[in-house]
Amino acid sequence: MNPFPIVIKPYGAFAVLIEWPPRVEESILDDILRFTEYLKNQRILNEGDWELVPAYNSLLVVNDKKQVEFKMMKSQIENWYASKDTVVLPQKYLWRLPVCYDEEFGIDLVEVSSTLRLSVGALIDLHVKQSYTVYGIGFLPGFMYLGGLPKALEVPRKATPRQKVQKGAVGLAGKQTGIYPQESPGGWNIIGNCPIPIFNVALKDPCFVNVGDRIQFYKISKAEYDLHRIEGEVGIYKMEKIKIDA
């Protein structure tokens, strides 16, 4: 018996979009990840040039080279979804990432703390206390959408986005927090900076994090930030990675 109703839609000529109920829940994300793992083991996906993109409450199934026959694919997906219950979720990890919250980096820290009626110290304590689920990766290569933000830290995006946000900037927006993996425009409220590279195109796996993993931040000093930034640039920083039991 399937725990969730799904809707299957064409997504252009080369892709199919599978949608789950429009709620942000780990049970829905786990179901998506379980089905993603199931599809990876299906012969049709192993024979072609397929890409699977899970996020929040959807899964995009893309063929990079040939058009998808939607009616046939829809029928196959419905049958596969009914058979996925025996699939084990892929291993998840908790990644602990350092963040420097000095005002040099946390350029919106004072404004956000005032808006939320929190002291700067209380805001930082709340941000590092929580671990966050990676619900999606996108917008920029390696940009993680992290859910599970405490309600006390929920703050709207900036009314006017900045033209330039620094690489590694850690921000808040609505019910989410995240890290800018490279310099870009952006409208999130910046409260700190992570010195560790999140995305490296030169690596076999450019982004070390997967959807379904968790992130927890910990506070570091400016001196520690400078050290970790150098370690990250030369590839000797030791990432804190903890297995999450199923």
Helices, strands, pairings?
Elements (H helix, E strand, L loop, with lengths): L6 E4 L4 E5 L6 H15 L2 H5 L2 E6 L2 E6 L6 H12 L10 E9 L8 H8 L3 H10 L1 E7 L6 E4 L14 E4 L3 E5 L2 E4 L4 E3 L2 E5 L20 E7 L1 H13 L5 E5 L2
Parallel strand pairs: 5-13
Antiparallel strand pairs: 1-2, 2-4, 3-4, 5-14, 6-7, 6-13, 7-10, 8-11, 9-10, 9-12
Helix-residue proportion: 25-40%
Assign the CATH class of the largest domain. Mainly Beta
Under CATH, the topology of the largest domain is which?
A: Cyclophilin
Rg, Cα atoms, Å:
20 Å
- Strand order of the main beta sheet, please? 12-9-10-7-6-13-5-14
Give the termini separation.
Answer: 21 Å
Instruction: Supply the number of structural domains.
Output: 2
Number of strands: 14
Which term fits the overall shape? elongated
Helix tally?
6
CATH architecture of the largest domain: Beta Barrel
Major β-sheet, in short?
Answer: 8 strands, mixed
InterPro entries: CT_C_D (IPR003833), Cyclophilin-like_dom_sf (IPR029000), PxpB (IPR010016)
Protein name: 5-oxoprolinase subunit PxpB
Enzyme class: hydrolase
EC number: 3.5.2.9
